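User: quick one
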Amino acid sequence: MELVGLKPAPPADRRTLLRRLSFDLTGLPPSPEELAAFDADHSVAAYDKQVDRLLGSPRFGEHWARHWMDLIRYAESHGSEGDPILPMAWRYRDYLIRAFNQDLPYDQLVREHLAGDVLSKPRRNEVEGINESLLGVAHLRMIEHGFQPVDPWEDRVKWTDNQIDVFSKAFQALTVSCVRCHDHKFDAISQKDYYALFGIFAGARPTQSAIDLPEVLHSNDAELLNLKREIQAELASAWERAAETAITGAEEKDGDSPLYPWYALREKQGEAFHAGWHEIWARWESENRARAEFNRANFRKAWDLGSPDYQAWLKRGPGMGDERAKPGEFWILPDGAKIINGIYPAGAYTNILSARHNGILQSPRFRIQSDSISVRLLGGNFSFAQLIVENYAVPRGMKIYSMRSIPKQDRMAWVRWDTSFWKGFTGHIEFATLDDVTQFALETDSKDPDAKPLRDGRSWFGAQQVCFHDNQLTPQEDVAAIGPLLTAREPQSAADLQVLYTELLRAAVASWVRGTLTGEQAAFLDFFVQKGILPTTLDKLPQLVSLVSNYRSVENSIPVPKHAPSVIEEAAPAQALLIRGNHKNPGDPVPRRYLEAIDGEPYSDARSVRLRLAEAVTKPGNPLTARVMVNRVWRYLFGAGIVRSVDNFGKLGDRPSHPELLDWLANRFVEDDWSLKKTIRRLVTSQAYRMSSVSSEEARRTDPMNRWLQHMPLKRLEAEAIRDSMLFVSGRLDLSMYGPSIPIYYAHENSRNKNDLPKGPIDGAGRRSIYLELRRNLTNPFLEVFDAPKPSTTRGERDVTNVPAQSLSLLNDPFVIDQAVTWALAVLQERESSAVGRINLMFLRALGRAPTSPELQRALELVTKERTEHSAEPSPELLAWSDLASSIFNLKEFIYLR
Amino acid sequence: MSNRGKFTRREMLSRSSMGFGLLALAGLMDKDARANGRAGPFAPRPPHFAPKVKSVIFCYMSGGVSHVDSFDPKPRLTREAGKPMPMPVERTMFNDNGNIFPSPWPFRRYGQSGIEVSDLFPRIGSLADDLCVVRSMTVKFMEHAQGNFYFHSGQPFTGFPSVGAWVTYGLGSVSQDLPGFVVVGSGEVPLGGINVFGNGFLPNVFQPSMLYPERPEPLLDIRPKQTDTAQRNRLQFIASLDREFLERVDQNPQVESAIENYEIAYRMQTSVPELMDLSKETAATKRLYGMDSDSPGTRAYAQQCLLARRLIERGVRFVELTMVDAKGKHAGNCWDQHNKLKEDHFANAFTVDQPIAGLIQDLKVRGLFEQTLVIWSGEFGRAPFVQGSDGRDHNPYGFSLWLAGGGLKRGLAFGATDEYGYKAVENVVTIYDLYATILHLLGMDHKRLTFRFGGRDFRLTDVHGHVIRDLLA
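Assistant: Done. Structure below.
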């Protein structure tokens, strides 16, 4: 600056400086006490101490996380018709607040944003008991979805474009999204670069995910397993005893039932018995053959999750083991008289130890080519099975989008989905427990309006087979349960048959305990368990009461899992270039890699493409990452970036005003282990930052845009800071951190979407603005009028508009009036009872300074006049003071930072 | 710099009859050196070339009006009623499509032009000689939310400015105490939410102001919550302290215009209620619009149409009217007759027919027709075949809209769909062509109306669009 002959502005006065620093670092004004302490501190390090204090304040993270949310287009819903919510999005917001408060190295923040789900050493949060790194990828889910598109591939191309747009702008200040249709007109970015990135993001399949550290949900596994063995042993011995008399008195007319031979033959003797037995055997044999033939003729088996096929599926969550379950698994029910509800066949189950072990199980991607898909499953408490087409991840209800089932049964059963509409698209099948479901659409499934999920963390499914077919049939069940009986030996009489039952039951129970149960044996045993012929309830098994209650209490100590939006890497194939950006016109596949101009080496392992991308962005040789971020920090502190177009370092962007300074800051940033706090400290302790905002005559003439930073620019507070300051000043500010968002306040019911959460309190429960719900279709008008951005893409630079609607809001908005009244009430309750004293306090609190004497006079006059004006109303004193309070909110000094 | 800005501003301030205006003016008088020539937030901007019209009234028929039942007669549908469509039928969301479904309404020829309009719209039909009917409109999306976004911004989702925001960005507003872009709301907004009208990446100076005639506070925060005296006391206090702050910040122009906004805001508190107050309209005018109708829907829509005229009279640049149902409320997706086409299309048409016809006649009588563009359209049309037993599914492949007003041919029917009204086949019009034409009428070249955002120069017409010269007079 001095090179161009400008003399820097003098230092700002202390109060102005602390106010500036406080807003810039925390988004809140300094309290009168903090100002007084700073005034009184004459040490050389006085200012540095304030910097440290504010950098160490939890409010710092809340303020800087909000900056980041602008870059990442943070939203808690998907927009379009119905504006479906993205459940638990707020956990990502909390993650950001923690990250900024802990000064997470920026390269790690980037790494977690791109590949937090696949890091070999994820960052652990011991206090919360969660995997922090996993939360980084949640932003990939913050996309807008069309409503029930008939072409979900087109929808997918659009939202993947949004992911690429946000990635490239936020981390690299490049406009890669421009090259969807053609090579970049201005920058060295090609269409191939775009589809190389597309392939990287396309592998990130949407899911919800439990974020708990493994040991949090698994710490009792060994104990539960031991108890479960003991329970199994006790059950086994009880069943062995019961096997003796199991079939006495049983009535069974169903031919598939293992009890049917007893029912049919118990009174037969001699030849009649033999003939009857052979008849049953022959019928079973032919029926079995016929059903197998029927199934073979009509269905193509896609996967059997009770076989090694299980390995090929994607799994997430504590309930998904590495291995499939063998026949004989069972679940100990968490409450009630019943201990177990059946003996499971081979398959995949989430609830082997606990229904709090949630999980998600997704098939490999496949091209849908059949008119129907049938799946065989069991489950409860709103676990889901569904076909997800082209990663379309929002709840749906219309006819063509109804490929899903909510199992409510203890036994495996087939369900069929009509997939004829979707032939030609790619998709995957998902089984998921309640909070893991990628597309939760309760209202469209529930015939019973009272059917609501139980929110105790428990939900479970078992999944077995998937088959493809072109008819409207479902596979016929094998006649498996009766098999062991008919294939063991031929009984000689009814009495012998009874013995045979006992033998077989005992053999099955013994195999069950040894873990060698066959599928048929499991079905045989399951039949007697489900029927209650073998005792399963505590009243019949008093010896199990203490074991089971012990198990249940340990199981119940497993915490309810915490969930967040996430992705799961599906290791997809490379994406074909879409000619002229037309989603229906694929060209050749483009190998996945970063931008050719930066690092064009293709990635060989499809499972680690996002990890490689994260490396490319965070490695020291990347020319953009550090520069882009220090430039953003500069922008937030000095009101304009060194490169003014903070989201675009390309040719269409602005040239840096001080290129060497930018380089130096970027280098120091990397040397400081990517510490944002150190960078911020470096900038706010500079002379430049501490200058006054008064410009010199000379500077106004030669550099009216203040490119050379002759003085500190005047900044208007951001929307959130305006609202938060009012809460602070009024005393209403509730500094509680984290947690679900506060529902938005709206004045008129009929402007809502029908799916909206209940209306929130007018003052947002006093919480900072970052904790307010952020729905795409229901924005906060007060924040919006002060330029809070719409969550559609990266906004490193907010507009600062000047519209009468802002004046109207500050004059008439019920929130402002509410805060003015709250503040006036507090002022009237202060020990200070003189009008002059009160006004002094109010100015100090709101503006960080005492009023001048003319100001004091005018304030006194205002209170007097308003008291008279309100004299006919119930509390003129309160109204008069709240008029002063709201007037102070309306001062330009309140919203402009010098 | 000329003195024009100064005088405009002075005029503007002194027009305010309240003491506050004068007081603040006194405070601003000596700051003229800096303020001179600086444009207020709503200041008009010059067009690219001489415009044909100054303002736009967009009657948006959300939900999708059936063109084959309104402005696109297809006798073959009657002749082949109940037969299968002789061409392949595209996939639809409900996928419950049956055979050819003839229109329940007869069509008749109107006026000199002989344009055929169905009995759904007898009053608009009688003005056929004033209309420029486009029978070959197409869009790319067949769901409502995407369709609503697409029809407003040329993109199927949020983040992009609507046509109203673009127009206001391009031309500003003549009105100094009303916003440049007003959406008259009925309560429920079209599917996709309020952002359908939104300013997207344009600064929020160009965002729509939602005006709700039925609410006690028709515009957000427009109603002072205290007496005028109490408010003026506060404003005086604010103005005097702001004046000193302005000194301390070196007459910062941003702060100065924020101060100035209080003037405008204060005046809006009276100009908006004055705008909403229809009591000075003559009984004849009100009758013309249908404000005396027995139908609450017609009355509510008549109020919107009358407000639209009052808004453009006051210099508002772009007015969009939203649908109301026959009861006069809650109608975000009013025309969406997947079933009961006959009953509900009739009710909707009855709701808007007289008010819109009244609006056109009133504009003509007042000499405003020549300087106004009226647009009538839904986000898509409806299929010529039946859905279920008595409805029609969405049809984006060809449908009708009409334009009327200055710079346009009159009594023209342009373009055509196939003989079944399924797909546009002649002079196919895209949304970008429509925008290019609208901008052209307003004096703007759609290729030059750009806004740089995130490193790219964006246009309302993206990289597409041709002015439809055949529509121009």
